[in-house]
Design goal:
This protein is α+β, with helices and mostly antiparallel strands. The protein is built from eight helices and five strands; from the N terminus they run H-H-E-E-H-H-E-H-E-E-H-H-H.
């Protein structure tokens, strides 16, 4: 079963889904791969702001949110310290006051969080929750850590892909803005018989006086000219 899960993880194609979609697949595979797993979630921490980017059920999300709101818990420590934290008996755990009550309320009695170092600016954790006390034996922990190694690569690649896609989108918008501004400048140069610098200055003044972005002023001018 674990070999099948690792093979499935390796078949994730970043280009076919967004970052959260990739992480959702990772969580789903982990739930099937680790014996004793009831629910699984993936925590990402960016700029000291943690959030659950994928989860297989409400119990995992409830436990994660409590940790974020209170600033303490095994998934936060695992992410920050890049280590594995195993809680065999939630009811007997007192390192994070109040967390044990929240987990018990969610029907969770064992927890396993494996830190996922992704980048300097981004850390994370794979969180696995069980309904039985001591649900995760030594073999399950080793399996989770081995699985997390594969997951960390997928997460790092997904983050890079997501960042690259965002940058490409921003560049596309910038190029489109530049194109419409150049069009507007050409119209002004033709109408006013002026140079490029003066045409840009006219656009800038119109932008300031109307309290609109330069691109919006340029777009409006181009559209009016096309309608004539």
């Amino acid at each position: 079963m674990s070999l099948d899960a690792f093979a499935e993880l390796g078949r994730i194609h970043l280009g076919e889904s967004d970052l959260e979609g990739v992480l959702g697949q990772v969580a789903s595979i982990a739930r099937r791969a680790v014996p004793g797993a009831y629910e699984v979630s993936v925590t990402l921490v960016r700029a000291d702001r943690p959030r659950t980017v994928a989860h297989t059920g409400d119990a995992a999300l409830l436990i994660d949110k409590w940790q974020y709101e209170n600033g303490r818990g095994p998934c936060l420590d695992a992410a920050a310290e890049h280590r594995t934290i195993l809680v065999g008996d939630v009811a007997a755990e007192y390192r994070w006051p109040g967390w044990e009550e929240n987990a018990n309320t969610a029907g969770v009695h064992s927890a396993l969080s494996v830190g996922l170092p992704i980048q300097e600016q981004v850390v994370g954790a794979l969180n696995i929750y069980g309904t039985d006390v001591r649900a995760f034996d030594d073999d399950a922990v080793v399996l989770a850590e081995t699985f997390a190694g594969y997951a960390a690569v997928a997460l790092a690649n997904a983050h890079v892909y997501d960042t690259t896609a965002t940058l490409a989108q921003q560049m596309q918008v910038a190029m489109e803005s530049r194109a419409v501004i150049e069009q507007a400048k050409g119209i002004i140069m033709s109408q006013r018989r002026c140079g490029a610098d003066e045409a840009f200055a006219i656009l800038s003044r119109a932008s300031q006086s109307s309290n609109r972005k330069l691109r919006e002023v340029a777009q409006a001018l181009v559209e009016r000219t096309q309608q004539v």
